[in-house]
Amino acid sequence: MNLQDLFHKIFASPQSTAQAIATVAFISLLAVELIISLRKNLKLFETKDTAVNLALGGLTSFVKVFIKGTTLVFFYWVQSFWKITDIPNTWWSILILFLLNDLIFYWYHRISHESRFFWAMHVAHHSSEILNTSTAIRGNFLHFFYRFVFWSPLALLGFDPIMIVLVDEISFYYQMYIHTEIIHKMPRWFEFIFNTPAHHRVHHASNAQYIDKNYGAIFIIWDRLFGTFEEEKEKPVYGLTKNPPKRNSIFSIITHELIAIAKDVRKAKSLKEVWIYIFGRPNAKM
Questions:
Q1: CA angle at residue 222 from 239 to 87, to 5 degrees?
Q2: CA pair distance 226, 110, nearest whole angstrom
Q3: What is the pLDDT of residues 15-49, one digit of tens each?
């Protein structure tokens, strides 16, 4: 594959169409939620918080344009040496790809909560004390520099790299609608199978019984299978158990946990302690 073909795959492929559709859907959802919030005086938005969300989302989108190319190059490289087979793009293979993508996301997401380094890269998404549609794009762009490695088994199995990226993006777009308080409950059968606003409000809450629960992207079945599911019962309290020192500073939101890790590593007395401070659980104590 020459550079011209690769450029076409990155910027003129189905992902670009999906991204355009998702952008329009995101703006529409945000506008509807804002109107409902204002008309019913729900106070779901705070100006500075929303501005930070949009700024972080814009920064992430900018980085993703370049990382998308790196991701595809990496997947094609993996396939050129170790691909097990060729999986055609059929309805059944795409369905399997959706399931496998969601399973990988579940474990990647869970690791991002249970290992301190990965939590440092993910904590920005949980740093808001408000939950609305704009929270969906609040995140740390740094994790995109290694995230694609976790998805390499799909390329190794023989799935089309373009479809891997597209399905992963669709999974992200689905999650836009679940960052909201205006949708109370979906039908019972839907709540049992799929991730919903009620399930994701639990995930963003700092209530003791809600911490580290409901990791799924599209499906909630993985949480039910692996014991991390929690039903929404009491009102969620959003934010972290220990919020960033400057709650509306983009630099502080992105780096505060990385700085905390560095401070702990400096006082470590052994390589074991260094490892625990970096990759142990976020609340690990020496």
A1: 120
A2: 11
A3: 566 677 778 888 888 999 999 999 988 889 999 99
For the chain, the domains span 3-279
CA distance 38 to 271: 54
> How confident is the model over 228-239, as pLDDT tens digits?
999 999 999 999
Cα–Cα distance for residue pair 231/84, rounded to 1 Å: 40
Report which of residues 189 and 248 the model is more confident about.
189
Residue reference for tokens 């629960």: 213
Distance CA 160, CA 273 (A): 42
Q: What span, in angstroms and rounded, lies between the C-alpha atoms of 56 and 51?
A: 9
Token pair listed for 157? 């199995």
Please state, in angstroms and as integers, the Cα–Cα distance from residue 152 to each residue in 23, 70, 266, following that order.
Answer: 27, 12, 34
